[in-house]
Design a protein that fits this description.
Chain A: Keywords: Cell membrane, Membrane, Transmembrane, Transmembrane helix, Transport. The structure holds two protein chains of two kinds. Chain A is built from 13 helices and no strands. By secondary structure, chain A is an all-alpha fold. Chain A is flat and about 85 Å long. Chain B contains 15 helices and 19 strands. In chain B, the strands form four sheets. Chain B has a seven-stranded mixed beta sheet, with helices on both faces. Chain B has a six-stranded mixed beta sheet with strand order 14-18-13-17-15-16. A four-stranded antiparallel beta sheet of chain B has the order 4-5-7-6, with helices on one face. Classes of the chains: A mainly alpha, B alpha+beta.
Chain lengths: ~300, ~525
Amino acid sequence: MVRYLARRLGQSLLTIFLTVSTVFVLVRLAPGDPATSYAGPNATTEDLARIREQFGLDDSVFAQYLIFLRDLFTGDLGTSYSFHAPAFDVVMDRLPYTTTLAISAIALTTVVAVPLGVWMARRADTNREIGANIVTIAGQSMPDFWSGVMLLTAFAVLIPVLPSSGFTTWGGLVLPTITVAILQMALISRLVRREMAGALASPYITVARSRGVSERALTWRYGLRNSAIPVLTALGTRFAALLNGVVVVEVVFGWPGVGSLVVRALETRDYPLIQATVLVTAALAILVQLLIDLAYPLLDPRVRLGKAA
Amino acid sequence: MTRFTPPILGRRTLLSVGAGLGAGLALSQLTACAGPTGAAGPGTISLGLNRSLVSLDNKLNQFEAAVTVQRAVRQALTSIDQNLRPQLVLADRFELDEASGSWTVRLRDDVHYSDDTPVTVEDVATALRYYGEVNGSFIVGLFPEMPTVEPVDDRTFRLHTQRPVAVLDYLMANIHITPAAANEPVELSSGVGSGPYVVTRANGGTGEYELARNDRYWGPAPSLRNVRVRFVPEESSRVVGLRSGEIDVIDSISPDSADQLDGMRGVRIQRSPGTRINQLFFNFRKPRGHPLADPAVREALTYAIDGRALIDNVLTGSAQQAEGVVPVALEGAARTGAFTYDPRQARQRLDALGVRDLAVKIIWETGEFAADTFIMEAVQEMLSDVGVRSTLQQFEPGGDILQWRQGRRGDWDVLGNGFGNPTGLALTSLQGMYAGTPEREETRDTYQGFVYPEVAGLISDATAEADRDARNLLLTDVQQRIWDLWPCLWAFVPDAVLAHRTRMTDPALKPINSYDLASVALEG
């Protein structure tokens, strides 16, 4: 277990390093000049030269990279050009909003999609299941900006019971959560339905049923437990993706998360902020994946970490 | 056969611990970012800004709505009023000595910061020095040169410049004063000010601030107890927030949103003639012999543009066609002419000048002004009607339009560009756009290559002219000279527009698209 953890930790660090290094080079290859974004359209050539010197942008990309690595190992991710504050601090100001939205959306997804998927599997090929299928396909097909605007119009404008933007009250979490969760619920419920349908048709379920095990136990203890790993993997992957920010939902609901921060950082060519955001979100995504892997043996004792199947 | 190794801890235990940790983490995150309060309560208003206020200092960033909030916390020696005239704030005397060209300023004897320490001459000197030391400061560009401070006594000082700057009382409205010991040559994210409000919570990363009434304010106490400032980037979200009552004030709104909100119950719209000019500016770097290097050709092309239709149909009446080279609301601005729509005359003039088969390239950055793409497409059609072919090239924010503007990336003919003015002075806009010199053009730092030494000379003379009437005469002359060069294919001045809930009093919007937060009160 310790060796496994050490190996995974090493892999994770390498992945983060490669990701950040790739982003470091790619943002510098894109057109645009951070100095121009920083100083505005009326800056003189002299102003721009001073700003480039101030931020070390007149060094070669390789020299900038070496400085970046040196600072990275001392925990300094640089100063954001547009926020005039440590880039890491700016990301951490926004991160609670992103994690809150991601956690609440995944929680809602789990609470709704798992029972729905189980229900669909137990009623496979009935009219009710076909109806539920249509609903989930619709949920999967709806772009989140559209569902967000519709929810906003319904519950913030026509029946103004919920805030339309920001997170100044707890109610502010409701509409963004539902908007994000609609797509996730559609995806996860269909996955649960597929896995559960397979599990419920397995010989061990038939044997258990013949031995008089109740349908409730067959579904929730036998069937769901054996379907849990792919579902957990999917939930974890979706959660990790949400931690990178949900730009459209953040824009529609004025949610100050990491997604809109990245867009702004890219627009202003704020290199330190782009790098800090990528570093933090990549680290979080990798951590989530690691936690999911560690959870496998808890769900299924046959799984042993670090051993080939 | 798979060998089963019993775990040290039971699976149930681990799952329970995991669930508990997850719940704890979720709760801590929620607590971290959600305040305990609901919608703006009694004595509180909420402002929804279109751009993120990264700090309450303006050494680097100054956009219109930011000024409103920044000045509620940090004040300057003067401020610009609704009639675009300077008013004394921290100073009770601000006088120009015409003989020496220096200004004598005296601080009010009762001004102090929110921590009760007095505003001193050293604070002013330090502020001026640090504004000058910041790279890329927008504010410094407004000053022909930064003044230096010579103390006279503990409240009085002189402001010196190498050449007289006769409008320093206007310009100093942009220099916010902070205690010298707490000031730095960077944008400050904390610290005290002398304004009617103090910051009680600040999150520069999300652009959210909470201000509370400064109980030690040296002036009349503001009516509002608290002000909440939020960054809501999407205009439709700000409009919905205003309609639902979550936000009390939104500003810098587009014509479409203003139309949508106009007449809505509980919402009031305020408009003021603006100080920003949006132009379709010709490229003045064309070689001799190029049709666009000839003012007569440029003038002929202006007849092709139906400005009235653009104002009425695209901008829905929220702007005025320019009647001069700067907005006429500015102090010292002159009405120098008008854009006339007459496509037949355009074609006749072009024919008479021997210009046939002219093709122009129009460039602009997305969001430079409201309805930018619609305007450009309409202009393309209008030019086509007089036989002028045009191509449009749109740049995304953060791209390399500056390189294009300077002619380093490619050639172009017309640039869609806006030029704001936070001082209320025509002189500032003229200086920024039309005072180009051959020396500055060597580094392509003039305004689209506009280099006319006699124009630059007149602007410089006006800057130094102490007598207001004489200065305005000089300015009228120089504006007419510029107009006669036909620098713009078309230009318009958008209104400053603000929408607010009727539960608060009118915020007295100034043409510089800002208002005095301390003068706002709740109705009833």
